[in-house]
Specification:
Blueprint: H1 4-21, E1 25-30, H2 32-35, H3 40-52, E2 56-61, H4 64-73, E3 80-81, E4 84-85, H5 92-111, E5 126-127, E6 132-136, E7 139-140, E8 143-144, E9 149-154, H6 156-164, E10 168-171, E11 174-176, E12 182-184, H7 187-198, E13 202-207, E14 212-213, E15 219-220, E16 222-224, H8 225-234, H9 239-253, E17 258-263, H10 269-275, E18 282-285, E19 290-294, H11 300-312, H12 321-326, E20 331-336, E21 339-348, E22 353-361, H13 370-384, E23 389-394, H14 398-402, E24 407-409, H15 416-419, E25 429-434
Parallel strand pairs: 1-2, 1-13, 2-10, 5-10, 13-17, 16-18, 22-23
Antiparallel strand pairs: 3-4, 6-9, 7-8, 11-12, 14-15, 17-18, 19-20, 20-21, 21-22, 23-25, 24-25
Length: 436
């Protein structure tokens, strides 16, 4: 924050997200490599903040580098078949010890409360137990994975009891069979199965990357399920890159509405992802994250907030709240997480034409094609009403309309009722688009 006012503004803007997340259940995937990163302490502080804000948290951790180190110390060679570790009977003790040490480190970090630290006064209760029943993976393509297993059942009732007691639940990638055997599990599978059993509101996967990137190295802010499936197909032979994305995809397939990939190396990535509109990583979603719809009376306040700065600049004609309430059915908006990012209005005239008015985009979201999406929806509605053309009066955005098929026109082209109301002092330019 550059100054105190920036902090105040950020805090106010985060308030809707604080309210939205309170009482929700999040499953957090934390790979073993994250515990070895310099940013680990900050992640723990941010997790503690979420707990203080009333978020129900299940933390599922990995331990692959710690297991590798432990087996090497015990003079055992780490063996893998495809993406799975082969865990024989002689290695179970070392694997269990490595996972246990990681778990104890997390519990210790969540238990600190030194003065002048972010954990001061947190008094976090950490809960653990045999929440996961496992079974052996068995023999795959002739390879016996032995004590490497898969999730058989998640004790969601016990998990809910712990969460209801405001504890952070820590789940390790170990499972136990009814016969008393210990199985080494994939922590990503454990996380998705826990999220599924709890019907969690979010799965958050920490990764070494900021999020998921396309072939051109551009961060993909959001992926629909179909887009996520396409990316996974492209990375089917790269388990390390696709693991977090696969977990998000499977979680959403099993009814979790949103899953997010963020970096464990970026300080504050968790808070930025959850308490800012744009987040910090990649969102995998089952719904329409940004969508266009007709405005309702409940949108008046958000519309005023969007258009008032443009009215002050002279780009839009001033509208009172009363007028906006009376004309709200004429407006189409683009919404994201309850915030209105773009809008436009359509006013049909008696001669079969219609005025396109109040085209606006939030300053932080311009040049993203959002106004174009609203315009497409407006044009579709105009065609549905069998209107022959739409016209617009603008003082500052002539080129934008020209690029979208509008052509300059004279005052005589306007319908009589609009021609009589033309404000010569504003000297707006007139553009018309004929509808096919």
């Amino acid at each position: 924050m550059s100054n105190n006012q920036d902090y105040v503004n950020w805090f106010r803007q985060s308030s809707p997200y604080i309210n939205a997340h309170r009482g929700k259940t999040f499953v957090v995937m934390l790979p073993g490599a994250a515990m070895m990163d310099d940013n680990f302490a900050n992640i723990i502080h941010d997790i503690a903040t979420l707990n203080s804000l009333g978020v129900r948290l299940v933390l599922v951790h990995g331990a692959r580098p710690q297991i590798d180190a432990r087996l090497q110390l015990d003079k055992h060679q780490s063996r893998f078949f495809q993406q799975w570790r082969v865990t024989d009977a002689d290695e179970v003790a070392g694997v269990s010890q490595a996972i246990g040490e990681v778990r104890f480190s997390i519990e210790a970090a969540l238990s600190t409360g030194l003065p002048n630290s972010p954990m001061h006064g947190a008094h976090i209760r950490v809960s653990g137990g045999n929440f996961v029943t496992a079974k052996p993976m068995g023999v795959i393509n002739g390879v016996d994975l032995q004590h490497t297993g898969k999730v058989r059942r998640v004790d969601n009732q016990s998990l809910h009891q712990a969460l209801d007691g405001q504890a952070i639940v820590v789940v390790s990638p170990l499972g136990y069979s009814p016969t008393g055997e210990i199985f080494n599990l994939c922590f990503a599978e454990v996380a998705t199965e826990v999220a599924k059993a709890l019907q969690a509101d979010k799965l958050i996967a920490f990764s070494s990357e900021t999020g998921f990137f396309n072939r051109d190295g551009e961060l993909l802010r959001q992926l629909s399920m179909s887009e996520c499936g396409e990316q996974l197909q492209r990375l089917k032979n790269d388990h390390e890159k696709s693991q977090s994305l696969q977990a998000c995809y499977q979680a959403c397939q099993n009814g979790i509405p949103r899953a997010q990939i963020i970096s464990y190396r970026q300080d504050g990535a968790l808070l930025q992802e959850l308490f800012t509109r744009d987040g910090s990583g990649t969102l995998v979603h089952t719904d329409h994250y940004e969508y266009v719809r007709q405005a309702t009376i409940d949108d008046v306040g958000g519309l005023l907030e969007l258009i008032e700065p443009l009215e002050q600049q002279g780009a839009l004609v001033r509208r009172s709240r009363e007028l906006l309430e009376a004309e709200i059915n004429q407006f189409t908006i683009l919404e994201k997480d309850g915030a209105i990012l773009a809008c436009a209005a359509l006013y049909p005239a008696a001669d079969g034409s219609a005025e396109l008015a109040c085209v606006a985009t939030h300053p932080n979201y311009q040049k993203g094609g959002r106004a174009g999406l609203v315009l497409e929806a407006i044009e579709s509605e105009a065609r549905r009403q069998n209107l022959r053309e739409i016209f617009v009066l603008t003082t500052q955005t002539a080129h934008w309309f020209i690029e979208r098929g509008f052509v300059a026109a004279s005052l005589e082209r306007l319908p009589a009722e609009k021609k009589n109301l033309y404000n010569f002092q504003r000297n707006s330019k007139i553009f018309v688009k004929t509808l096919a």
